[in-house]
Amino acid sequence: MSIFAAMAAGGHRQLVFCYEPAAGLKAIMAIHDTTLGPGLGGCRMWPYASEEEAVFDALRLSQGMTAKSALAGVNYGGAKVVVWGDPGRDKSEVLFRALGRFVHTLGGLVITGTDAGTDPEDFVAARQATPYLVGLPQAYGGSGDSSETTAYGVFVGIQACLEEVYGDGDLKGRRVAVQGCGKVGSKLVRRLAETGAEVTVTDVDPARARAVARQHGARVVEPDAIYDQPCDVFAPCALGGVINDETVPRLRCRVVAGAANNQLAEPRHAAALQERQILYAPDYVINAGGLIQVADELHGFDRDRVMRKTAAIGPMLRAIFRVARERSITTLEAAEWMVRRRLAGAATLRTFYRPGPAGAAGDRAAGA
Ligand code: NAD
User: Fold this and answer.
1) Could you tell me if residue 279 is inside a domain?
2) Helix (H, G, I), strand (E, B), or coil: what is residue 330?
3) What does each C-alpha distance from 341 to 68, 123, 329 come to in angstroms?
4) Which of 118, 143, 334, 356 keeps 20 to 30 A from 87, CA to CA?
5) Which of 61, 183, 292 is the pocket-test mutation for ligand 1 (most atoms within 8 Å of CB)?
6) C-alpha Rg value of the chain to the nearest Å
7) How many angstroms does the Cα of residue 179 sit away from the middle of ligand 1?
8) 345 in a structural domain
């Protein structure tokens, strides 16, 4: 597919290529939708096999950010930055400073931070060149690690799912199978264990799974066995693509609700889950806690406000489930419908004339 055809299909607005040979930087900034505000999205550093792969990843990820912000009640649009490079080999101070300069050229249209392959410390160098960054270390005025907030959002989301399926969100005695005991998974296991759930865990790093299990009284299974566990909730907290043709028939749960991004191998797997009467919490809704946290840095970080906004993931999921029921559509389709509705509502405001310092020009400058 050509790049413009892909942008047309996805509804993207802008794709910016950044090249600084002295820094060894090849980066792409994708801007999907700015109806709600400037594009906000992390910076992924990855050794893509080809230029095409990097471009399409930037397009796909920026589109996801529009949806995530829209339903998290965050007033930002969708963007993503990808750096084509090996995070284990190619990182340097000058690379991130160069990236910061490119981000700055867009004057705040793109605000970025950490994602796979980058960490908060990398952006300390980028901060020399631009203020349009989030997710900096706490010592530099950022909000620090977002995994606790993400885990909290997944926890309240699981309660909303149980309420939908059983009429009661209480976790006591409910069985939850958690795939991945990393930053988010381990904190989710802690919350689940504290509320009396029976937790089964797995991780490709067996020592990590054993440590989390020992600490919180969970049971450990082999990575591939996690799909076969009889349970109430399967919580993917590791990789994307784990809900696929091979795994859907194996699942023995009533709910799929976890932190991982892009859990469905393809959108049609939402329908496959529904056919098996498994409730799916759309990943970009339930895992939005981290985004809510970093976006809050742009207003002067306030942890209580972040936790309150993250708690609203529960009511948002209930609304999605209601729309899905009323319209006989999948929960993924319902979430997409609600994204479109929020964007359409915000877009209508642009038809109002809003006086600014330079009349209509001021209106545009304010991004109204
Ligand atoms: P992490 O790297 O700390 O943890 C991932 C864990 O999964 C690791 O322990 C890894 O060994 C394990 N793992 C990898 N492949 C596995 C497999 N096949 N089976 C079992 N375990 C496997 O990452 P994280 O920050 O905890 O994020 C987990 C997921 O949640 C990712 O998909 C991430 O994109 C998503 N997410 C994270 C945040 C956040 O705030 N950290 C926010 C939104 C979404």
Assistant:
1) yes
2) coil
3) 14, 34, 16
4) 143
5) 183
6) 21
7) 9
8) no
CA of 367 to the centre of ligand 1 (A): 35
- Ranges under pLDDT 50 in the chain: 359-368
Do residue 89 and residue 56 come from a single domain? yes
The answer to the question of residue 84 being in a domain is yes
End-to-end CA separation in angstroms for the chain:
34
Q: Is the pTM of this model over 0.85?
A: yes
Nearest CA to ligand 1 atom 29: 260
Residues 163 and 128 in one domain: no
Query: Which residues have a catalytic role annotated?
Result: 80
Give the range of the structural domain holding residue 106, as residue numbers without chain letter: 3-67+77-138
Query: How many angstroms separate the Cα of 224 from the Cα of each of 237, 247, 283?
Result: 14, 10, 21
Task: Give the separation between CA 232 and CA 48, rounded to whole angstroms.
Answer: 37
Do 214 and 100 lie in one domain? The reply is no
Residue 357 confidence (pLDDT) = 64
pLDDT at 258: 98
* Calpha distance 116→364 (Å, rounded): 34
Q: What's residue 368's pLDDT?
A: 41
Spacing, Cα 187 to ligand 1 middle (Å): 12
Distance CA 281, CA 290 (A): 17
CA distance linking residue 305 with residue 116, whole number of Å: 26
Ligand 1 atom nearest to CA at 259:
30
pLDDT at position 96 is: 97
